[in-house]
Design brief:
Elements (H helix, E strand, L loop, with lengths): L8 E5 L5 E6 H10 L3 E6 L6 E5 L1 H18 L5 E6 L5 H16 L3 E7 L8 H14 L4 E10 L2 E8 L1 H18 L9
Function: IF-3 binds to the 30S ribosomal subunit and shifts the equilibrium between 70S ribosomes and their 50S and 30S subunits in favor of the free subunits, thus enhancing the availability of 30S subunits on which protein synthesis initiation begins.
Subunit structure: Monomer.
Subcellular location: Cytoplasm
Amino acid sequence: MNDRIRAREVRLVAPDGEQIGIKPLPEALAMARDLELDLVEVADKANPPVCRIMDYGKYKYEAAQRAKESRKKSTNIVIKEMKYRPKIGGGDFDTKTRKVEQFLGEGHKVKVTIMFRGREMQHPELGKKILDHVAETVADVGRVEVFPKLDGRNMIMVLAPDKKAQAAAAKRSAEEDQDGSSPSDPPSN
């Protein structure tokens, strides 16, 4: 930038992007100073190097804003955890599974854990059955990423959101809504 440029001649580009041509470095620096802007080397490998007249502070600020905007748009995936027990009741199972569906719908991964106590460890198939039932229930919003495996006194499975399955489920429900309210139904009195 400015006095740090070491080339004798530079290919000069105006602030509006117009090619000015090859100029000696002192003349290019003078043109930039006349416009109260900076001379910035943008392609040092070219022969002669390409330099552009620009407001370097404004350029850096805009680049920082673009980086900030791209960070804002990127989604950070959070792993949520839902814990079940082998002897879970039907109502509790439904409530927890609805919450798992909600997390997957929001785009989060969900770690489903079955906690075994005491002699429940003798029957890991009960835990596997529950995890399979959870995976089956949430199949329209998520898919199994890590299949059920025993980890100490817990059995763990990881579910990830599945955009394709969510889109297919939304399409199915839209079609069912259309079929359900057909105009040929007789009016009720």
